[in-house]
Design brief:
Oligomer: heterodimer
Number of helices of chain A: 12
Mean pLDDT of chain A: 87
Order of helices and strands of chain A: HHHHHHHHHHHH
Distance between the termini of chain B: 24 Å
Largest sheet of chain A: none
Helix content of chain B: over 70%
Radius of gyration of chain A: 19 Å
Helix content of chain A: over 70%
Number of helices of chain B: 10
Order of helices and strands of chain B: HHHHHHHHHH
Number of strands of chain A: 0
Number of domains of chain B: 1
Structural class of chain A: mainly alpha
Largest interface: A-B, 36 and 37 residues
Mean pLDDT of chain B: 91
Structural class of chain B: mainly alpha
Strand content of chain A: under 5%
């Protein structure tokens, strides 16, 4: 374990430095979700007049979405970076060294988690600056930071699995719309009980992304809703465990092939 | 004229083959408008219950017009990505050498953008009617809506194509995409203009896309407002971006692509 730590640290440092040196990997995950949130908050403000809408501020309601949308970008970034490592032969060269396979995975994901935490801090600052009041207070913000790191880790592991499985950055980019479906068909723009179209409400209820968004949303507009927190953390941890297991297995196969 | 058409049809055929039969390009082109339509018309249907919302054909029709215009604009922009890729990969250089009438190259890409959008438009229309979209306008109104969307498609392509021919790299994709995305979403996407509040209301009031959207929605309602103004605006913008694209072609020629 002690000999693996420097390996993890070296890969993590490389991952963080590489991400920070690519504005295209840093800026869109920060800016794009916030722009979309601002547009939605402006355009859908009047929907807070609907009976049963849980808050009078659509911005507070919409602030939860960038947390998950940013994580989708993390998936793409993690996957594309790893795929590039595979395509350029970097993973092949690593396989000739004493590097442990899980150290490569953990180190790589560390960079994604760092970016994930930066994203969460950015979204919280944007929310506070725009006048959003976090009902769960400072404690809730601390929970959001932990949750943001977990979300980035889980989605990053998903991206890593896709990269090890396909070995192609282009394929991962092409999968982006597929992941976006889960975001669109969720409670991102309306509470589930206010979705009028039956099939959409059922799909949103079956979609784990709805619960991931509602977890963040509960900390912002409700306070401490243990059910929402339990479901949100539960689905994120489950996604993380499954993705990590798939990514580890795909990595072993990839290293065996090479 | 015949030689220009030969070049245009050749470029269009090749571009369409890439756009419609390469899954990595075809899937986002087709899937994104359908996702947007499902998310907006399905997830936000209760917005029609907001006090003051008055659009008799219903919320599905209200969102259909936005998604149709959005698909038109992005069909053009995505074709612009293809132009940039062709320049980056050196194919456009060979094309410039081979084509007797280079304007045919731009026209070919524009034709491909149009057919690409047409495929999406047909699919979107079928889905919209399948989920019960109401249309109060007649066939002429519907034709008006599709012609308006086709003009938006040309505007989207000539804008993106002009950028692509100036910068000649796929790294220019955000520059082609972001302004179009912003101008579309700074319009009354979810509710009519008079229900918008705050900064977005001010921006939407001066956004030309607002007028195109209102006219397009009016076509489905059978009572389109400012039709002449909307078409004049779309044709004017199309002419401006046409000039922008052909000046871009001149720049690419001067740079030796």
């Amino acid at each position: 374990m002690s000999s693996a730590l420097p390996q993890v640290t070296a890969i993590a440092r490389r991952s963080v430095v590489r991400t920070s040196r690519q504005p295209a990997s840093v800026i869109p995950p920060l800016v794009f979700p916030v722009v979309l949130m601002a547009v939605n908050a402006g355009g859908l403000r009047s929907s807070t007049d609907l009976p049963g809408f849980p808050t009078t501020s659509f911005l507070a309601f919409a602030l939860a979405v960038p947390f998950i949308q940013g994580a989708l970008f993390s998936t793409m970034n993690a996957g594309t970076d790893l795929a590039r490592d595979i395509q350029t032969g970097f993973v092949n060269r690593l396989s000739l060294t004493a590097l442990r396979d899980w150290a490569l995975l953990v180190g790589q994901l560390a960079g994604v988690v760092v970016l994930g935490i930066v994203q969460v801090v950015f979204y919280i600052v944007v929310g506070l600056t725009a006048g959003v009041r976090f009902e769960s207070g400072i404690g809730g913000i601390a929970v959001l930071l932990v949750y943001g790191a977990l979300v980035a880790l889980s989605f990053g592991a998903l991206g890593a699995w896709l990269a090890f499985r396909t070995g192609s950055g282009e394929t991962i980019q092409a999968l982006f719309p597929v992941l976006f479906v889960f975001l669109f068909i969720s409670s991102m723009n309306a509470p589930r009980n206010l979705i009028g179209v039956d099939w959409f409400r059922i799909a949103a209820t079956l979609n784990p992304v709805s619960y991931m968004i509602e977890c963040v949303r509960s900390l912002i507009i409700t306070g401490w809703d243990w059910q929402a927190l339990g479901l949100g953390f539960g689905f994120v941890i489950l996604l993380g465990i499954v993705s990590m297991a798939l990514a580890s297995r795909a990595l072993r196969t990839r290293l065996t092939r090479t | 004229m015949v030689r220009t058409w030969n070049v245009a049809s050749g470029v269009a055929r090749r571009t369409l083959k890439n756009a419609l039969f390469n899954p990595q390009i075809a899937i986002p082109t087709i899937a994104f408008p359908l996702f947007f339509f499902a998310a907006f018309a399905g997830g936000l249907s209760q917005v029609a219950e907001v006090p003051g919302f008055d659009f008799p054909p219903g919320y599905t029709a209200f969102q259909f017009v936005f998604v149709l215009l959005q698909a038109a604009a992005f069909g053009g922009v995505f074709t612009g990505f293809g132009v940039a890729r062709d320049f980056e990969g050196g194919f456009a250089k060979r094309l410039l050498l081979a084509a007797p009438h280079r304007s045919g190259i731009v026209l070919g890409y524009a034709l491909a953008a149009f057919v690409r959008w047409l495929v999406v438009a047909v699919l979107l229309t079928v889905v919209a009617f399948a989920v019960g979209m109401n249309v109060l306008g007649g066939p002429v109104d519907l034709l008006g809506l599709y012609v308006l969307a086709a003009l938006v498609n040309f505007c989207g392509f000539f804008w993106a194509g002009g950028v692509a021919m100036r910068l000649r790299t796929i790294q220019a994709a955000p520059l082609m995409q972001m302004p179009v995305f912003l101008i579309l979403f700074f319009a009354p996407v979810y509710v009519p203009l008079d229900l918008l509040q705050g900064w977005i209301e001010g921006v939407a009031s001066v956004n030309p896309v607002t007028y195109l959207l209102e006219t397009g929605r009016g076509f489905l309602n059978g009572d389109p407002p400012h039709v002449l103004g909307a078409f004049a605006l779309a044709i004017g913008l199309g002419a401006a971006f046409w000039t922008w694209a052909f000046l871009g072609l001149r720049k690419a020629e001067a740079a030796g692509a």
